[in-house]
Amino acid sequence: MATYFIRRMFWLFPVLLTVSLVTFIIMRSAPGGPWDTDSDRRQVDASTRKSLDAYYGLDKPLWRQFTAYVFGDINSVTKKFSCGMICGNLGPSYRQRGRTVQSILFSAPPLQSFWQSRFGYSLRLGLIALSFAIVLGIPIGVVAALKQNTLWDYIGLFIATSGISVPSFVLAIFLIIIFGSWLHWIDIIVDNWNEVKYWLMPATVLGFGTMAYTARLTRSSMLEVMRQDYVRTARSKGLAERIVIIKHMLKNALIPVVTILGPALAGLVTGSFIIETMFSFPGMGRAYVQAIGQRDYSMIMGTTMVYALLVAVANLSVDLVYVFIDPRIRFEE
Amino acid sequence: MAVKTSQTNEIESERDIFRSSKSLGAEAWARLIKNKAAVAGLIIIILFAFMAVFASVIVPENPLQINDGKRFLPPPFFKGSTNIQSDPRFLLGTDSLGRDVLSRVIYGSRVSMVVGFFPTFIILLMGTTIGMIAGYAGGRVDNILMRLTDVIYAFPDLLFFIIVMVALRDSFIGQLANGLILLFAALAIVNWVGVARLIRGQVLSLKQKEFVEAAHCIGATDFRIMFRHILPNSLSPLIVNMAFSIPGLIIFEAILGYLGVGLRPSSNPADIFITSWGSLMLDGQSAINAQPFLLLSPAICVALIVLAFTFLGDGLRDALDPRMRGTQ
């Protein structure tokens, strides 16, 4: 069992290496370099560009640039070894001069906690959206299953189906226009994200799809559990219906729901960049979209790596969580 | 020669068995049209397809006609927060350059339709071939191909599309058909993986079946077994998978357009694809108070078409495989 997980963990490295290689190749095949697409700033002349290229290692052959990015290389100007991605160094941002990609993403402004960093904001939004999805999704699924083929079930199924299929940014457009532009219940432009009420709307929009998915999953797994022999046994020995539902049905029905929580959180944190852009939310996703607009290649690549790592770890967590909560499952080879 | 006749006889007798009752396809179709949601979805899809094909005939105004001094006009039925007089000519108002929104939305359906169907075709071709080879050959070939799908599976797909579109937009491929070709390629490269895995699973289970063994015995070639015996038997999960992947592609296109890295809006009247719903929404978000319908109408269209495909997909799954009914 332990060997299975160690093997799975090692499998992360080739995956991340391939992701970085693909990203690197695409980024480098883009026309133009980091210095010449700056039309709104002072143009960089040839000799400055040469020394900048030397400083950032851009004058070396491509394969060396790649190994330097991933593993590290000796800087030809300062003659010091700088470690690459494997040490958590994502390199300098090409547009926000003087800052590294990891400091843009993970460092908070002075005197503020980690939660005030770009990544912290996105993580908080993802966690709130996830709790919204769980708190609403599981009860909807349970009620729909217990009252199968009644009006409640149909309402629940309708919410679930529409939530899964309508993309979150379309939902955001509807809600912003209805509540922001027509009813004036919420402010569209937010200047202070420390107030809780502003988080309500983006978190709801972001979590709605996951909520619908949770509801659908809970419903189908409840329906399966309800037909099991042990539920009949529990009923026939005279247990109260409430205890049968909570202790016997729900405990088993929630196993698949719990396992998707890891990927769901990763999906919410990584998938939030459109929502963040729409609500001008100061998170990692908006930094990513801004980097796209500014063609800040190192920033785009670094953020992609963070996202890829999150997704890969989340997928791994599915199997881990399964083993911990369901003793019936064993991985043996 | 003898082998060949016995084979055709076998196929013919197979057909006779099915002809005695209803054919599988007809039975599935009968189940499908009983499903009201699926039929509604099908009708909506046909309507949008009709709109896309005949866009140039049904548009009320020229979608490229720029009207000076008529920027962001609200539709006639809507009282915006500003007191701008609307023009009854523009049923859904005008955009940032005074162009008719309704006509542009109608033209936008072309991009969504073509993005839904064309990459799906490539995905099917790639996914089926690779899945077939992996499942049928087995061993080392299977191992290598499946590790490849693992890696692609781990790649966050939306990020991949964004990177490809950003980096290669100004290159030669990125210029073809206003960037549509590049978009197709990016969507196809990531999405064939699901189909390949599905087909591989099907092949692995069907390979052991008696009819494949029988085909081997009468000397059918591997190619024939793969494409005449195994593929038709794995069609139904493939069709269901397609119905669910098309709305995904439409959403991706809308997101990319909304981020400004999708199809380039064109001003050339000779172009077939002028604008997409995603870029309309990008245009519309700057005027949500004065002219919300520039944002709302493409958003409603995306929601409608995606719901339609989901309902059709649900219906197809129930119709093609009644055992799976209500499991999802």
Low-confidence regions of chain A: none
Count helical runs of chain A. Answer: 15
> At the first level of CATH, what is the class of the domain at 130-282 in chain A?
Mainly Alpha
How many angstroms separate the termini of chain B?
49 Å
Most strands sheet of chain A: 2 strands, antiparallel
Which spans of chain B have pLDDT < 50 for at least 5 consecutive residues?
1-6
Total helical segments of chain B: 14
Compact summary:
The complex is a heterodimer of chains A (333) and B (328). With 333 residues, chain A is mainly alpha-helical.
Keywords:
heterodimer; A: 333 residues; mainly alpha; two-stranded antiparallel sheet; 15 helices; 2 strands; globular; B: 328 residues; elongated
Give an account of the 3D structure.
The complex is a heterodimer of chains A (333) and B (328). Chain A is mainly alpha-helical and 333 residues long. Chain A has a domain at 130-282: MetI-like fold (Orthogonal Bundle), CATH 1.10.3720.10. In chain A, 68% of the residues lie in helices and 2% in strands. Chain A has helices at 2-29, 46-56, 62-70, 101-106, 118-146, 151-165, 168-182, 197-226, 229-236, 241-253, 255-259, 261-270, 273-278, 284-294, 297-325; strands at 72-74, 81-83. Chain A has a two-stranded antiparallel ribbon. In chain A, a hairpin with a 6-residue loop joins strand 1 and strand 2 (81-83). In chain A, helix 7 packs across helix 8 (197-226) and helix 12 runs antiparallel to helix 15 (297-325). Chain A is globular, with a radius of gyration of 25 Å. The relative contact order of chain A is 0.13. Chain B is mostly helical and 328 residues long. Helix content of chain B is 70%, strand content 0%. Chain B contains 14 helices and no strands. Chain B has helices spanning 2-20, 24-34, 36-53, 55-58, 101-137, 139-154, 157-168, 172-175, 180-206, 210-217, 222-233, 235-258, 277-284, 293-320. The longest helix of chain B has 37 residues, at 101-137. Chain B is elongated and about 80 Å long. Chain B starts with a helix and ends in an 8-residue tail after the last helix. The relative contact order of chain B is 0.15. At the A-B interface, helix 1, helix 6, helix 7, helix 8 and helix 13 of A face helix 6, helix 7, helix 12 and helix 14 of B.
